[in-house]
Amino acid sequence: MTVRFAFDNSYARLPSSFYARVSPTPVSAPHLLKLNQELAVQLGLNPVELATQAGVEILAGKRIPEGAEPIATAYAGHQFGQFVPQLGDGRAILLGEIVDQEGVRRDIQLKGSGRTPFSRGGDGRAALGPVLREYIVSEAMAALGIPTTRALAAVMTGDEVIRETYLPGAVLTRVASSHMRIGTFEFFAARGDVDAVRALADHAIARHYPDAAGAARPYLALLESVIARQANLVAQWLLVGFIHGVMNTDNMSIAGETIDYGPCAFLDIYNPKTVFSSIDQLGRYAYANQPAIAQWNLTRLAECLLPLLAEDQDKSVEQAQEALSAFAARFSDAYNSGLRSKLGLLSEREGDLALTQDLLDRMVAGKADFTLTFRRLSEAAMGPEGDVAVRSLFEDPAPYDDWAERWRKRLGQEPQEGSARRASMQRVNPAVIPRNHRVEAVIEAAVEKQEFGPFEDLLTVLGKPYEVQPGFASYAEPPPRDGRVYKTFCGT
Ligand code: AMP
Ligand code: MG
Q1: Which domain of life is it from (predicted)?
Q2: Ligand 1 center–CA 492 separation, angstroms
């Protein structure tokens, strides 16, 4: 059976310095673990074709579908603050682009598909664990309504990869609005190749920010648009307790999607200083640092765009600074209005910010679970009977009681009440998130015992994060005290 992809590969038509043409390295025994049927349909792909032997071989990089133009893209990046002039897709290969059912152009990329000219010392492969982690967390983010790359499929390769030990190899098919990163701009800017920076900026405008094309200053409009999208994105991360873990400039998408799921994790207990990543020893990418890091990364993007902004360097710098200064307000607006919704406050009144901050501070002191506190507040908003369940999340519940009294007074000024308010709160306060202990348990079952039932179950629950699903109530629970995960590891 032929597997049809209606490829139209705009990135492969850019100058040849943007990528290396390279085919995936064949694998021995491809085996389909998971196909995202719904996403396949959205992409205009036929899930039945994809699940055939030929389809699975494509998803494993063993067979190149018609119309694909496999490339590894070039990029640079600041990793933990240090500039690395050449990174690039070392273990990922872009097969091509397709325009989805809604007219949006999407990249189809194989991650873990073998070495490329950008692999440096790496093997170009991915182990099963990180592939499952990315599948779970990226799909959970999508279900939460947060911009993200998607997972179309996960396949086992039949080959082993060598990490600390031998591990089963796997390939993830990643779908993204594009794979342009801040690091892609840095790659060309660092080489002084202004024409390439311009071509890349034009491509980004055409693809993601068509309105910028008609602006008086299109490249400034591009910068402003990326800043706005990133500010919104990071606000949404914070509102669900997400920590990306490696916010290097090469892991920050120009399209404003969450990308490159490595040691990412969600908070259980609320503490803004939380760091999970084993490689983030100084806490650069801690939960609460994410807005400041996003702004730092966007400053690197602005530097790349300087030669395009104005004729005169000083004017360019002035424009870039003004654009960057909008980040803080944009982030705060999105974050604060998100927090208000989480507390059932639809109108905006003086004192709201202090009230929310006060709750957060008390959550830190009381070691309260982030997700459950907000979710249970949606019941407590119905009346003080709901307080028992929230109180139980605090080591010392007295500070909550005091706060709840003030919160109820404030709720009294809201037009919405009762079950309508509960419903709107439940739409923004997830019941389930991909808790680390669950993700780790799924990976362990898959890698150690070849059991994929837990993976399927977790995906089912996370597909409807704002609903409590019968039979799956335990997924909302925080880890037992001795089952907390404190460290997460990179995808490699
Ligand atoms: P990441 O950790 O995904 O942000 O990757 C950082 C850089 O390391 C990128 O250039 C990757 O392509 C490269 N890389 C990560 N893992 C591997 C691997 N197993 N083989 C080759 N390159 C890799
Ligand atoms: Mg990366």
Answers
A1: Bacteria
A2: 7
Q: Which of 91, 171, 179, 181 should be mutated for ligand 1, with most atoms under 8 A from CB?
A: 91
- Say whether both 336 and 192 belong to one domain: yes
Q: Is residue 472 situated within a structural domain?
A: no
- Distance between CA 482 and CA 487 in Å, rounded? 14
Task: Kindly write down the DSSP assignment for every residue of 328-350, as one continuous string.
Answer: HHHHHHHHHHHHHHHTT--S--T
* Residue 16 in domain: yes
Phi, psi of 176 (to 5 degrees): -140, 155
Distance CA 280, CA 245 (A): 8
C-beta of 24 in contact with ligand 1 (< 6 A): no
Which range marks the domain in which residue 67 is found? 11-179
Beta bridge pairs of residue 71:
21, 94
Q: Is 123 annotated as a binding residue?
A: yes
Q: What is the pLDDT of residues 249-281, one digit of tens each?
A: 999 999 999 999 999 999 999 999 999 999 999
Q: Which ligand is nearest to the CA of 279?
A: 1
User: What is the per-residue pLDDT across 374-431, written as a single tens digit (0 to 9) for each?
Assistant: 999 999 999 999 999 999 999 999 999 999 999 999 999 999 989 999 999 999 999 9
Summarize pLDDT for 313-328 with one digit per residue, the tens: 999 999 999 999 999 9
Same domain as 331, residue 309? yes
Which helix or strand (DSSP H or E) is residue 191 part of?
none
Any binding-site annotation on 88? yes
Nearest CA to ligand 1 atom 16: 492
Which pLDDT score is estimated for 373?
A: 98
**What is this structure's pTM?**
0.98
Span from the CA of 247 to the centroid of ligand 2 (angstroms):
9
Same domain, 222 and 95: no
Catalytically active residues are: 250
262 CB less than 6 Å from ligand 1?
Answer: yes
> ∠307-257-7 over CA atoms, to 5°?
90
| Domain stops at, among 179, 209, 228 | 179
